[in-house]
Amino acid sequence: EVDEAVADVLEHAQRLLRRPRFHELCKQAIEAVLARQIDHLEARAVLAELESYPNTWSQQAAQWDERASELLATKPREAAELWFRAAELYVVYGEQTEAALVPIDKALMAQQGHPGALALLEEIYAVSSLFAELAMKLEMMAAYAREPSVAVNLYLKAALVQQQQAQKPEAAARLYQRVLQVQPGQSDASRALVEYHRSRSEWDRAQQ
To answer: Are 50 and 30 in contact (CB under 8 A)?
Structure first.
């Protein structure tokens, strides 16, 4: 049972190692393994790789970028994931948020609507309070989205940014209308537009 538990924690740590944002959790998992088996070779190998990142992160980012470029034509989702991880390296180890936007853009090009890349993009723009710019970027991506579901998600994100952070209700309403053009009757957009028209005492439009 002990060996199985150690194997499970080690497997979890190896998954965490692939995500720079989770490297602290990876370290905790490895330390838990070594607390049970101090001479566990696989765990020590993972720990050694983990501890190398502060000095080797830029080389790793370059390797992931190169590998992603090779995969783009045949395995775009895998390419997107590698670019997303590279972006995390820039944020976590390089503290270079502006540089991280390059692999983020590549990830979103390879897989439109990649959840992790989108979340990191939003985080980076939010830190600098660039909400209008973020909304514009999300709207642009939505306009070029190949899948309607991706377009709807991006328009909704852009609308929320305009509504909540940028404090531009008119711009948000326009984006909610775009959502309904892509997906008529979409519930979130419909409710938001009803509230918008009620707030402006546009009762006839609120009932449409």
So the answer is: yes
Kindly report the length of the chain.
Answer: 208
- Contact by Cβ (8 Å): 140, 161: no
At 10-69, the pLDDT tens digits run 999 999 999 999 999 999 999 999 998 888 999 999 999 999 999 999 999 999 999 999
Q: What type of residue sits at position 70?
A: E
8 A C-beta contact, residue 90 and residue 99: yes
Residue corresponding to tokens 């002990």:
2
Separation between Cα atoms, residue 93 and residue 61, nearest integer Å: 11
Q: How far apart are alpha carbons 59 and 62 in whole angstroms? A: 5
What are 137's two structure tokens? Answer: 């970027």
